Amino acid sequence: MNQSSQNQAIPICPICSSESREWGRRTGDGRTFVLFRCSRCGFAFVHPRPSLQYLSDFYNRLGGCSSGDNLSEIRTTEEAHWSEMEYPNSTIDAKRIIGRLQRLKPPIDSTLGQRRFLDVGSGFGFFSLEAIKNGYDVIAIDLSAQERMITKEIAGIDPIPSSFEDFQTEGKFDVILMSQVLEHAVDVNLYVKKSHELLRTGGILMAAVPNFGSLFRKLLGVRDFYVTPPAHLNFFSDNNLRKLLVKNGFGILKTEQVSRIDQRVILKRLPILSLLGTQMTNALSRAFFLAMNSIKMGMFLNFYAIKRGE
Known about the structure:
Elements: H1 3-9, E1 20-28, E2 31-38, E3 44-46, H2 52-62, H3 77-86, H4 90-104, E4 116-120, H5 126-133, E5 137-141, H6 145-155, E6 173-179, H7 188-198, E7 199-210, H8 215-220, E8 234-235, H9 238-247, E9 250-258, H10 263-269, H11 278-294, E10 300-307
Parallel strand pairs: 4-5, 4-6, 6-7
Antiparallel strand pairs: 1-2, 2-3, 3-8, 7-10, 9-10
Helix pairs in contact: 4-5
């Protein structure tokens, strides 16, 4: 292969347009995926990109956008409720995120008299439900038939069977929620640019993603819990997620680092901790996660970004 062909084979970073280098390889869904990392901003991503049709088929076979070190697949509303009772996760995040949005005071649609809320990738509907409880007019979209069914039963709304790429609507939104979504996107610029177009001035995009700069990722490398192609295609740190949002017209209102993981996952990886008992393991986990967040190496990034006046 000549030098020109080699250069063409090296993908350019979609965030800062710098050169990227191969970072690692990971097997998933019977395939081997190659991961590249930007030499400038540190953004990592799968290349070549799988097609939207392949991803749609993958998620429907899986029953949803399952990712990380899941211990079981959820197929029914009852299983979703039991999972949250055993290990509250989405419900805790939903209350925290919707509460934060309430304090940031996004605009209100004057014709509706309430805020319009778009839940992208609604999952099991816990975020939509919390938004509805707080007075939002919610529209949800999701590719997975299984997750749409569960969202309908939990939140009482019928999600639109659409990718964000194909989603069309009239009017503008006051809030767009992308919780654990951008890591799945084939084109991250399209997602953020389209969010900017769909929001009214002063509207807020809330994005939550796994942190590629986390302590776990640095220790585990390509074996990290959330380096899971083809479910996850993009791997963000604080720096490059900020760049992506600002590049596409947003101002950053608030950032947070959040760390939480199912104790069963911890015990699966470190069974010796079972000798300490549940209370001690939980206490050590909380202290450890608080320390991770304090040094900006938490497990998840939460960004609240505003569409400024044009």
